[in-house]
Amino acid sequence: MRIEAEQGDITTQDTDVVVNAANSSLLGGGGVDGAIHAAAGPVLLAECREVRRTAWPTGLPVGEAVATGAGRLPALWVVHTVGPDARAGQRDRGLLASCFTRSLDVSSDLGARSVAFPAVSAGVFGWSAADVADVAVQAVRGWAGDHRDSPVELVRFVLFSPGVLAEFDRALGADTQA
Ligand code: APR
Q1: Is the pTM of this model over 0.85?
Q2: Angle ∠(83,86,90) on CA atoms, nearest 5
Q3: Ligand 1 site, CB within 6 A
Q4: Annotated catalytic sites, by residue?
Q5: Looking at the domain that runs over 2-173, which CATH code has it been given?
Q6: What is the distance in A from the centroid of ligand 1 to the CA of 155?
Q7: Cβ(77)–Cβ(110) under 8 Å?
Q8: Fewer CB near the last or first residue (10 Å), C or N of the chain?
Q9: How many Cα neighbours within 13 Å face the side chain of 54?
């Protein structure tokens, strides 16, 4: 599995899956969440409401992931995940790692071959880009090692700013190639 990082707008990614940095309500918000819903169109919110009505009536837990269609986005699916919120004292790296591994589980079960991730929790939820990069790269590399027969061939971190990209490039270069 190839793991790469680039600067860009995740709503333009034509990967099979685009991961949304959502909140537990799944009813939209700002940042990535706002951009994805705006680009996907109102059908995405309708599908999220259906997820709330069926699979997750009390909301999506932190660290969990759930798929919907992608509306007008070039992607085939949106996988919504909820990062830990540092402002609320949620600083458990395992919970943040779970956002990435559960999103890959869900993507793999869908038969996705490529997945684009934003820097989950590095915006409104107040985590440092450095910590998110370290946790995300380690989580994805570990998942790849445990799922060698998965259809997922490419994971792309799509970062909105040069500073966040630099942290992911550092994290990707840091470890020996696992
Ligand atoms: N493409 C890629 N990255 C983006 C985009 C975009 N279009 N827009 C923002 N980002 C970056 C931010 O700069 C940040 O580095 O994604 C990272 C995550 O930021 P947020 O979107 O704020 O996500 P998060 O920190 O997980 O907070 C989630 O914010 O938008 C609300 O509804 C959302 O309540 C939830 C919370």
Answers
A1: yes
A2: 70
A3: 9-11, 21-23, 29-35, 83, 118-125, 158, 160, 164
A4: 33
A5: 3.40.220.10
A6: 18
A7: yes
A8: C
A9: 9
